[in-house]
Amino acid sequence: MYHREWKCRCPKETADGFVEYLAETGIKDTQSIEGCTGYQVLKREVGDEVEITFVSFWQEFELMKEYAGDNLYKAVLYPEDHKYRIVPDTEVKVYDVIETLTASDFIN
Prior knowledge:
Blueprint: E1 2-11, H1 12-31, E2 36-46, E3 49-58, H2 65-68, E4 87-88, E5 93-96, H3 103-106
Antiparallel strand pairs: 1-3, 1-4, 1-5, 2-3
């Protein structure tokens, strides 16, 4: 399994709108690809801004190319991102997931 992580910052007043827009764009696009097994959206306040992290999970490394293109480490940005005054990371991080544990794994 692989974990693909992208971040951006935006003003507090546009954060909720951007998360809704992300659901219509990046989340919808990744979830339409077979082999993308899920996602998480994380949000935290950093001073006067909000940092938003979008994580998607993939069964195979090559399947991410259907979303990201040949350069898996280049951020996928959308035409209306600027409306939310985001400051996007232009590169993403990709991790090989080596272990996952859920509560059901250790509760008997």
